[in-house]
Task: inverse folding
């Protein structure tokens, strides 16, 4: 295909005709041969030993104080430990911390720590590591460091006691610890390079990006872009492993869906994580020895509407869009071989999360109401075309984008659909001016607390991320979000978020399509409770990929 | 060219070559289908904003002769409209590249000296750039659009014409009739357009028809890489790329779209081939 026209011409002018035609025919034959299916070959049983090989989109960031995405979060959850772990169903449970006390005013938290934990290099875990990890997070200000701004002081009261004093009441405080990985302070200090953090040099960033300094259930043994990440079991982990837990976990990057399908069929992969097109999942579900599972990560699929760009700056236009979207049309997409890939959303809070309103209606199409809303808008009949972007890497999102385009045509709105790569997507949404009218995206909880999704999405001061592409600036919502952080009573807080969710929905910052359930495929000889049993699912970015709880049997 | 007896003799020779006639028939059918797409396609609406997830991924049957894609659109209809996209791309690109390249080659070859050096060195610079990479860079800098894709392909295509014509002009310009024209005081433009160009025309025409296939192929490569026409405009390269994700189960998506590209390229190549034979013998 890249052959130069000139050389081609010379061949044509010089070469015997029959040869060239023969070559053309041969080429056609080869093309058809290639099109015929590697996957149709007989499945070869390959002993997996005690290994889990999983597809991953890209190399994760191994430094546990930087992650904002799923690949990095998965590394963090497996290489490191936390004072408190996110628990199934959305709560928190003790981990490195065995218990904690909260002062009457809700500002002082004292944690009792385990005394039997060792890091991968054998160093015992102490409260110094906790204080160091917190300072590192607060100083570097990367990833979700904003969660810890509220901590005024952290103090080691003894080798296994630590006290935090907060600047103000902060209800999501305990949940935030799901994002504070505890690093080995001695190892990191011994490996710090020159940098901008004074006596801490680079705070060990170069070191932790390539090696691990944790105590988690797995040890990082290989971490190479373009190739793979390899983790091996840490036998000394204080929580123990599933009796059949994999000795080795290999994460493979950048595999195309057809390759994943073929490799799964040949048993060269145990587990998929990256979303696969429904066609591939259906084919895998039909393959003997492979089952589908559900990753319920507390995420949602939305068409975010830029509230500061014409014409979506007018709430009536946004309302019209929300009323015109063909919610019923997505139903066929949400059923993958009998497995649900999502459930219709009821507003801005995903199901199973505090503040979710079971009584709120799901989206419903009403073209007359949509046209009426459009007529009420300041643009009237002359609504300029909308620009819509989606992440090209998420192939199946195009279907929703086209459904959106089709739906809007029914009320006379033109939509330019533009697929762009993830890197460019993140660039595009850095300012309100450069953000298109409509951004298709999955967003989800980053800590077990509802605040982690709503604040990053809707507070006017939250930094520009793919969460905040609607550029909301509403004083009432801001006040509601701020108040939500100070209510300590759980029931009151849930009621508060239900009301806040309604207020947000009234402003129509997005078309709330569905609460996502990422359908994954696994070999039947792999047990992955968090992906097959809803009761053990951890609704959190990357929370369901804890290899400690997975088992590998002999392939049947 | 005028319809001289020579021309009709050439056409008769062309008609005696069965492969060339086959090529002409393929091209004629494709061009007609593209022009009359709205009338010919079974589901013209499927070329636009259309979704029908209930009928997605249906294998070829009596209702949908070439099956449907993941969005429930009729593949045959989209291929017919895809031909329109491809042919418009081919004609536009060559419509820019051929006159531009021919003019550059004529001037360079006839003027000689410094003008020749400048024109031909610029041509060489463009020839040194890998066509697909340059086109990708141009398209990648901006929003993917058909106009840009055409501009990008045209930018890498004209130098081949410049060099081809330049070579021919160099050999023709000292022919007796050219020298005579100059001696009787004909202007350079008149000599180039009136005397030299007609003698280059058969070769340009041959290359033109061969290139139609290649331009369609390069356009398909660009859209295969995600730099083609924006959704939902049907584009054969994009259809192959999308369908490749669902091999082997939804084989009809990429196999039919790939076959459609193959057919178009084959048709134009056979025509070009036939023309070359005709002109080689008569010339």
Result:
């Amino acid at each position: 295909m890249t052959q130069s026209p000139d050389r081609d011409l010379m061949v044509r002018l010089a070469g015997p005709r029959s040869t060239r035609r023969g070559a053309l025919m041969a080429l056609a034959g080869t093309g058809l041969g290639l099109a015929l299916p590697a996957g149709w070959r007989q499945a070869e049983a390959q002993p997996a030993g005690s290994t889990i090989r999983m597809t991953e989109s890209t190399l994760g960031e191994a430094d546990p104080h930087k992650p904002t995405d799923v690949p990095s979060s998965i590394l963090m959850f497996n290489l490191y430990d936390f004072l408190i772990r996110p628990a199934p169903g959305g709560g928190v449970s003790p981990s490195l911390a065995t218990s904690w006390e909260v002062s009457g005013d809700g500002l002082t938290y004292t944690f009792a720590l385990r005394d039997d934990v060792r890091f991968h290099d054998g160093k015992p875990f102490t409260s110094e590591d906790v204080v160091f990890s917190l300072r590192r997070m607060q100083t570097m200000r990367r990833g979700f460091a904003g969660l810890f701004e509220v901590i005024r002081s952290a103090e080691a009261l003894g080798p296994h006691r630590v006290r935090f004093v907060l600047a103000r009441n902060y209800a999501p405080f305990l949940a935030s610890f799901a994002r504070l990985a505890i690093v080995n302070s001695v190892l990191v200090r011994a490996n710090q390079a020159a940098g901008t953090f004074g006596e801490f040099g680079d705070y060990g960033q170069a070191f932790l990006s390539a090696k691990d300094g944790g105590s988690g259930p797995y040890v990082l043994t290989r971490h190479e872009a373009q190739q793979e990440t390899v983790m091996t079991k840490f036998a000394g982990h204080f929580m123990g492993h599933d009796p059949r837990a994999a000795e080795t976990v290999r994460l493979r990057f950048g595999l195309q869906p057809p390759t994943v399908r073929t490799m799964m069929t040949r048993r060269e992969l145990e587990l998929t994580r990256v979303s696969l097109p429904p066609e591939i999942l259906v084919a895998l579900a039909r393959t003997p020895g492979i089952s589908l599972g559900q990753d319920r990560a507390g995420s949602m699929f939305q068409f975010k509407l830029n509230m500061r760009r014409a014409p979506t700056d007018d709430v009536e236009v946004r309302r019209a869009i929300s009323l015109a979207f063909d919610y019923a049309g997505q139903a066929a997409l949400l059923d993958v071989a009998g497995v649900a890939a999502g459930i219709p959303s009821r507003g801005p809070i995903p199901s199973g999360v505090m503040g979710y309103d079971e009584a709120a209606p799901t989206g419903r199409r009403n073209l007359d109401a949509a046209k009426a809303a459009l007529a009420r808008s300041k643009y009237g009949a002359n609504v300029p075309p909308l620009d819509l972007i989606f992440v090209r890497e998420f192939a199946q999102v195009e279907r929703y984008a086209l459904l959106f385009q089709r739906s809007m045509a029914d009320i006379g709105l033109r939509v330019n659909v533009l697929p762009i790569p993830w890197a460019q997507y993140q660039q595009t949404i850095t300012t309100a001016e450069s953000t298109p009218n409509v951004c298709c995206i999955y967003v989800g909880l980053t800590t077990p607390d509802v605040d982690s999704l709503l604040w990053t999405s809707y507070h006017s001061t939250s930094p520009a991320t793919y969460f905040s592409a609607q550029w909301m600036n509403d004083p009432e919502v801001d006040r509601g979000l701020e108040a939500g952080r100070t209510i300590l009573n759980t029931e009151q807080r849930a009621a508060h978020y239900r009301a806040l969710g309604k207020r947000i929905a009234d402003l129509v910052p997005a078309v709330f399509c569905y609460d996502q359930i990422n359908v994954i495929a696994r070999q039947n000889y792999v047990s992955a409770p968090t992906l097959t049993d809803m009761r053990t699912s951890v609704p959190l970015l990357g929370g369901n990929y804890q290899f400690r709880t997975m088992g590998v049997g002999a392939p049947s | 060219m005028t319809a001289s007896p020579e021309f009709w003799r050439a056409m008769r020779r062309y008609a005696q070559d069965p492969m060339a006639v086959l090529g002409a028939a393929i091209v004629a059918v494709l061009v007609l289908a593209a022009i009359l797409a709205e009338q010919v396609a079974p589901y013209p609406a499927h070329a636009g904003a259309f979704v029908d997830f209930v009928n997605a991924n249906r294998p070829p049957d009596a209702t949908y002769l070439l099956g449907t894609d993941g969005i429930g659109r009729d593949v045959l209809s989209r291929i017919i409209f895809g031909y329109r996209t491809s042919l418009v791309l081919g004609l536009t690109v060559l419509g820019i590249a051929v006159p531009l390249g021919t003019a550059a080659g004529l001037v360079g070859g006839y003027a000689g000296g410094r003008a020749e050096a400048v024109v031909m060195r610029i041509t060489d610079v463009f020839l040194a750039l890998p066509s697909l990479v340059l086109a990708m860079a141009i398209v990648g800098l901006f929003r993917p659009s058909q106009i840009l894709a055409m501009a990008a392909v045209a930018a890498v295509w004209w130098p081949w014409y410049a060099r081809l014509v330049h070579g021919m002009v160099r050999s023709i310009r000292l022919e007796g009739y050219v020298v005579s024209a100059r001696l009787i005081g004909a202007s350079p433009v008149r000599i180039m357009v009136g005397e030299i160009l007609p003698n280059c025309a058969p070769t340009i025409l041959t290359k033109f028809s061969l290139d139609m296939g290649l331009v369609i192929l390069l356009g398909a490569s660009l859209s295969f890489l995600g730099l083609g026409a924006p959704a939902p405009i049907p584009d054969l390269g994009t259809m192959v790329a999308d369908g490749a994700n669902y091999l082997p189960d939804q084989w009809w998506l990429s196999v039919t779209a790939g076959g459609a590209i193959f057919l178009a390229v084959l048709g134009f190549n056979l025509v070009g081939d036939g023309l070359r034979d005709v002109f080689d013998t008569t010339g």
In short: The domain at 60-206 of chain A is CATH 3.90.76.10 (Dipeptide-binding Protein; domain 1). Confidence is low (pLDDT under 50) at residues 1-48 of chain A.
